[in-house]
Each structure stands twice: as C-alpha cells, then as structure tokens.
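Fig. S4 source data, part A: sequence.
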Amino acid sequence: MSVRELVVLGTASQVPTRHRNHNGYVLRWDGHGILFDPGEGTQRQMLRAGVAAHDLDRICVTHFHGDHSLGLAGVIQRINLDQVPHPVTAHYPESGRHFFERLRYATAYRETVRLAEAPVARDGVLAVTDAFTLEARRLSHPVESFGYRLVEPDGRRLLPERLAAHGIKGPDVGRIQREGGLGGVGLDEVSEIRRGQRFAFVMDTRLCDGVHALAEGADLLVIESTFLDEDVRLAEDHGHLTAGQAAAVARDAGVRHLVLTHFSQRYSDPSEFERQARAAGFTGELSIAQDLMRVPVPKRT
C-alpha cells in the first residue's frame, strides 16, 4: 500500500530543548524515503519513529549549520552498517562540499553502500523519477541554503458519467486508458487532468523569491518559523522567518496543509505560533510540528 506522509524527527532550531530534538524530517512517498536536514540525534529519533535506514534512498541538506547537518555522520554510518541494498543519493549545497566530506568520513567505518553525491549549485531540477521530480531553489541565509520541492507528474482521472455516456465499461475501461482511445472516443473525452501532488521543504531563510517559488501550490509545505512576529528584526538579522511571514507565504501560495517548525528555544508556548499564523490569514490545515509527529500528505481533491 502506498504511503505519503511526513515523519517529524526534530523541531528545534539552534539549541535543542527537553521536548525538541534538533531538526530531522523524513518524507515517505510511496516506495521512496527522503531524509531532510539530519541534525544531532537523528539516528535515535529514527529509531523512536520507526524509520529504518533501509527506508531511505535520498538525503537532502538545505545548508551546513550544525542543527541541520551534524547528524549526517551517524546516519551515513548506519546506512552502511545495515548494508542498505539500494543506492542512496545525497543533495547538499555545492559550496559546502568540504563540510559534507568531513561529516561523511568523520570516523572510521566500513563502506558497504554506494552513496552518490549530487551537490546543488543553482536553481533547477535535481532528479526525475517515475514518481516525482525533485527541484531546488536558492534561499536567503548567512550561509548558502537551498530549499527543496517534490512534484508528482500530472495524471488523468476517468469520469464515470462520461464513460457511461459512451457505453464504455468493463475491460474497455482499461483499454481506453492504455491505448488513448477506443472506437472513435478519445481518452480526453472521458477523463480530466489529475494534478500531481506537491511537497515543499523550506528551512532557514529570510523572505525571498525562492521561498514563494517553492511554496506555490504545495499540498504540504514544511517551513521554518523560528521567531514570533514581535521578533521580526531578529528574524531578519539572523536569516529566518516569523510565524506570520511563513503563514502569509502559505496563504498567498494556496498551500493546503502548512507545517510550522524550527522553533527558537526562547518560546515556551507553541500555541502562539498557531495564533499568529491564523492572524496572518492562513485558513488551510495547520500543524505546529512536534517531535515524532506524523503528517499525511492531504488526499487528492
């Protein structure tokens, strides 16, 4: 059975708390598993969340601040220890290649898995699979940072009333799908475009064009909201977003489900993030991320 969900491993920003581990997120997309921004403690959080190294076939790092990358060493070694039977691809900013190499070979271990490095140097498509296209967009942070976007190819949805009107039923339904037409009736006459689902992952950044491009039309948007709105100057100085800014992006982009995360340790009341997001006018589904939370990708409309 196909599963499309976000598994939240950690939600803290620079400093973890008793209740929030450093960053870490796994997107399960049918048979694919993508690990985003593994901070310290990610390997243990995976264990607690029921995510195995075998579940991963791609790692995406937005930037090389420690709370987004120091867990790489343990995760990579675990992938090799468990002898994951398929290749794993790692995406990260090209400018941080030396950091990736240091983390990959931080200690001695036996390499048993082919880990392909595919660094990101510019906006654009990173990978195309049968299930999705993976894209990257540059963000605005004190160190080079990229956000990621996954887009499923559009498909077609058969319309039962049109099939019936043309007398198409039983095995002929499969035939018209396979062949694109049947008895002078074209597939487009009995179906409509089914828009592919979209997922976006936006971490440490100020407001910029890349944020809006990544969020556009996302069914599920995971986005940092390190600060509350009253600390907008701190957010700007340190290259971050506030809850209201993140929610306004989601509002304008038509996001269906918004997940706010990456919270500063200075705040003890997570409900304030929800209040400010709603005050910004976001009316879709909203989650204030908690460690080990599971968030399903919204069902198709």
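Fig. S4 source data, part B ends here. The longest strand covers residues 4-10.
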